[in-house]
Amino acid sequence: NFALNRGANVDKAVAFLLQDTTAPKSAVLQEKLGDLYYSQKKIDEFAKAYETALKLDPPRRQKFRLLENLGVRLSEAGKTAEAKSAFERFVEAFPEHPNTPAIKKRIEGL
């Protein structure tokens, strides 16, 4: 993160994560890979990395962040069905969360 904030090359960071043997088993590194892809406007790759992170059973806070960001970013990219799915999984996983009513409204608007 620090290097990226100082202007490091995103392509090099992606290449590094793709070569890192721990990345496929790390929800944190998959989320970072997804964020890098999103910064490159590679929406399909972003979504795949986030879905991989979700399959790795991330901690509750990370799962919350992954599902919410996945829904928002896919919605912004015009991928309505995929966004709706992410938002619905958010509501199912976090029915008591303060953001859930707003997420339900987003679902209705899709």
Question: Would you kindly provide a written description of the structure presented here, covering whatever features stand out?
Answer:
By secondary structure, this protein is mainly α. Helices cover 74% and strands 0% of the residues. The protein is built from 7 helices and no strands. α2 packs antiparallel against α3, α4 runs antiparallel to α5 and α5 packs antiparallel against α6. The mean pLDDT is 93.
Topology:
Layout: H1 2-5, H2 10-19, H3 27-39, H4 43-55, H5 60-76, H6 80-93, H7 100-109
Describe what is shown at a glance.
This protein is mainly alpha-helical. Helices cover 74% and strands 0% of the residues.
Distinctive features:
single chain; 110 residues; globular
Largest sheet: none
The class by helix and strand makeup works out as mainly alpha
Uncertain stretches of 5 or more adjacent residues:
none
> Mean pLDDT, rounded to whole units?
93
Beta strands, count: 0
What percentage of the residues does DSSP assign to strands (E)?
under 5%
Radius of gyration: 14 Å
Shape: globular
Distance between the termini: 33 Å
What is the subunit organization of this protein?
single chain
Provide the helix percentage: over 70%
